[in-house]
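I'm stuck. Protein, please.
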Amino acid sequence: MIVNREEAIRALNTGEFVPYFQPLVKLSTGQLSGFEILARWKKSKTGIVLPGQFIYAAETNGWIGDLMRELLRAAFKAAPALPPSMTLSINVSPVQLQDLTLPRQIKAASEFAGFALDRLVVEITESALTDNLEHAMTIAQELKQLGCRIALDDFGTGYSSLLHLQSLPFDELKVDRSFVSSMTEQRDSRKIVAAVVGLGQSLGLATVAEGVETKEQAEMLLWMGCELGQGWLFGKPIPAEELPDAVTSPRQRLSTGMSSQLMRVAASNFDTVPAQRLAQLQAVYDGAPVGLAFIDRNLRYVNLNQRLADMNGFPVEDHLGKTVAEMLPGLFPQIEPYLRRALQGEVIPGFEIRLYDPDTNRDRTVLLSYQPALDEAHEVIGVSVSLVDITDRKYADEALVLSRHTDMELLKTQAQLRAVVSAVPLGIIVTDAAAGAPNMASPEALRILHETPPEQSKIENESPWVATSPDSKLPEAAKAPLARALLLGETTNAEDVLFKRSDGTEAWVSLSGAPIRGPNDEITGGVVVIQDIDSTKQERERLVNMADALVKELEP
């Protein structure tokens, strides 16, 4: 299509160029996050003309700035139909990044329509940065000062990407549609998407996937940890008059885990040992009767279990991607100093805080522990959080949420696993196979057992996993928590047992078990959680004896 300047200017003056809006969706909740503004030419005779047929002419004939002005004014004018929390995004042409007046043009459009620029995301294509990086840096800084967010679009298709990420103040990273469209079929595409998402997470940038057309793609992106998605799966571009209906229409939430088929596809990219660590991490989350979370360097929730979500009073999905300050504004000033110290590499073994429980109308006392998670270079990548309700010992046994990790995130997964095992103030022992061979134990587990777990410990024989029940009878192996986890796939409730140590001493402990499952849902190992309750039982017996003595004194 040949477009001459006079025709284009006439179309601009008569309002033929209009904005269309494509939804951006939070993958974790399915809720709308905002819309991207796309240009359309509404010709009276031929109908809608897509941007591929006129953008090049606008750039070469000098009316690209006028086009952006009209699109922004019209889009900002339609914005009252959107909730204040939703954003608008617009792509900036490479030609416009040579124009140092661009920030002033965007500011003028926002003032014309009364639109707050902290709700605008300006997308810069990677290829646009190669012509004049200095001008791009100046423009980006001025846009940031106006309140705009900056996104790097089509990441992975241009040049010197890492230099650009380091040089400009980006807030978002957009995964190019060419990789997303083939990620469920092509391993190389999956690895690229995983790398981009992992890079974005490590730099504290929100990640957005373009061109999402199938549920399988969306589920895999969610599992990888991508935050936002856009594409025909979530909605085609719509005109301004359809925005109110789009905002109020119900949206379906994605599943919190991948289908078994997608799990197999993703698992096929993992090395054997990291894949085991990923399954072990889930089992620790599943089996631990305490609140667990992993928080990144920006103090955002990356993962947490249902127990901690219940303690905070919000659903799991409401936490993901939010900061601790956003979720716990009243408590954050009290715990922030400890979090900051943990981010500096300090282990915070445990400190007590009080939380108000609206269900019981009383305060509950909890014990918080923070463990820095280190990558292979011993850099702190986040903090593993453990929260134990020490008001009483009744813990909920609920389904927990698996962290979404991929190739680039496997080292993080292993670091999180080590941090979780070290941070939880309980004994944790991880086994690799149905034979019950331990391969990881927390310091607390070794303290309780008074020994290092044996290299091989068959579950059918007497072992640390088969302990004497309160009636002093030796239970059958199949009744032991680990055996039930390994043989039956059960996640067991905590059970009080009298444990006989190898040095001849005894201790009352609480045992619970959970299975570790592979990508095909097969049981590949188990987790045992141990709590030393000797002191608790002794205190209970002391109180009983005191009560008996008091009763005797009161007897006539």
The longest helix spans residues 534-554.
